[in-house]
Amino acid sequence: MGQILSNPIIDKEIDSGTDVLTAFGLCAMQGWRMSMEDAHVCAVDVGSENSKHSHVAYYAVFDGHGGSSVAQFCGVKAAKVLQSQESFQQGKYAQSLIDAFIASDREILRDPLLRNDHSGCTATTMLVSKEQQRLFCGNAGDSRTVLSRNAIAKALSYDHKPTLVSEKSRIVAADGFVEMDRVNGNLALSRAIGDFEFKSNPNLPPHAQIVTCVPDVVEHSIDYDQDEFVILACDGIWDCLSSQECVDLIHYGINRGDMNLEQISSRIVDVCCSPTTEGTGIGCDNMSIVIVALLKDEESVEQWFSRIRSKKHVANVSFEERRRAVFSFYDFPKNDADVFAVSTKKTDEHGNSYTSNEDEDTEMDRNEPPAGRSQMDMFSLESLLGANGIQVSQGGNNVSYIHGSALSEVLASLGGGGGVNQAIDEENDSDEKREKLEEVKD
């Protein structure tokens, strides 16, 4: 699961937009992870300036791993890289997605800083062509794009896992191996932008490297009587929901009549954010989701909502019920209004329990540190120390405990190392050892 915070960061990036072809609602949240490594693109028209062809919409979700650098690069540059491809300017959209993925790798390698960066990102992308009345989805990795077709989930991408026969064959042929379901025992996915340590064979083309950036591309002819919306999301969402469950939740939100796409995407993130770190590990990842409505000619977003509601699709499972089902191990409050309160209940090494609750609708509470504690205490300090293998956990009486093998090494270098771990774990430390702990915290 990787390093996680003691409390999730539930501030959200939300956005929405519309054009003549599509409308979208976006939500992205850092959650329990030490940093936000997702990025996205919602470009409702990328075709008009650089292509002789008519309106083209472009959407993408980039899920970073090993750092945020490559994902952030793609979030900023991906649309321009796509527009610069000759295949895109010629209206060859399926090929243009492949060309853009490969060109993104090349652009990163030209950057003097990023070329030595060890991060990477999965990418799931979609082009919608008004002229061709088609969807084009390019995917590399385990993010996913799903179409709602008469309320039935249709895959527009396929997860690239190292255990798939086709993926494992490429990995082994490139002198790699799959161990513990990971590429070379390390990477849990087999296609990504970046990750150049797995693309170092100069005798192999991009599509044959141990990890390749080359996407699979799925095309789909749009039937506006049946095709309703498309979901693009990172694996933080798909770890918690199946494709059909996500489609059902969106229809539930549409049928309520009081939610827009932005609000529905935000509530799905709430459904998927784990209430505690003591479960299976799902729900503790960064989360990003984009819901894209497919608009008929001259159809407004309000008319689209009315049209989808008129189909009367049955979506009986509410957001609250789905959250209870996803995290069935957790004892949620009986009142549905409290189901979405992020709550952690842990027991520290001294048997003290503590709880932290945040209401997502209270902006002031989100921006102000808890009473009696500085903002640096649990978030900034954790980020600073966590990168070096030092963990911070909260004990009773508002006392923070710092632990981890890296801390032992630091204290050992300061004072000879004898019995350091024991000194940290015991509640009644000597004054001298407490002073050393305070030096590290400072």
TrEMBL record:
<keyword id="KW-0464">Manganese</keyword>
<dbReference type="InterPro" id="IPR036457">
    <property type="entry name" value="PPM-type-like_dom_sf"/>
</dbReference>
<dbReference type="Pfam" id="PF00481">
    <property type="entry name" value="PP2C"/>
</dbReference>
<keyword id="KW-0479">Metal-binding</keyword>
<dbReference type="GO" id="GO:0010508">
    <property type="term" value="P:positive regulation of autophagy"/>
</dbReference>
<feature type="region of interest" description="Disordered">
    <location>
        <begin position="343"/>
        <end position="374"/>
    </location>
</feature>
<feature type="domain" description="PPM-type phosphatase">
    <location>
        <begin position="23"/>
        <end position="294"/>
    </location>
</feature>
<dbReference type="InterPro" id="IPR000222">
    <property type="entry name" value="PP2C_BS"/>
</dbReference>
<feature type="compositionally biased region" description="Basic and acidic residues">
    <location>
        <begin position="431"/>
        <end position="442"/>
    </location>
</feature>
<dbReference type="InterPro" id="IPR015655">
    <property type="entry name" value="PP2C"/>
</dbReference>
<feature type="region of interest" description="Disordered">
    <location>
        <begin position="415"/>
        <end position="442"/>
    </location>
</feature>
<keyword id="KW-0904">Protein phosphatase</keyword>
<dbReference type="InterPro" id="IPR001932">
    <property type="entry name" value="PPM-type_phosphatase-like_dom"/>
</dbReference>
<dbReference type="GO" id="GO:1903753">
    <property type="term" value="P:negative regulation of p38MAPK cascade"/>
</dbReference>
<dbReference type="GO" id="GO:0004722">
    <property type="term" value="F:protein serine/threonine phosphatase activity"/>
</dbReference>
<keyword id="KW-0378">Hydrolase</keyword>
<comment type="similarity">
    <text>Belongs to the PP2C family.</text>
</comment>
<protein>
    <recommendedName>
        <fullName>protein-serine/threonine phosphatase</fullName>
        <ecNumber>3.1.3.16</ecNumber>
    </recommendedName>
</protein>
<dbReference type="GO" id="GO:1904289">
    <property type="term" value="P:regulation of mitotic DNA damage checkpoint"/>
</dbReference>
<dbReference type="GO" id="GO:0046872">
    <property type="term" value="F:metal ion binding"/>
</dbReference>
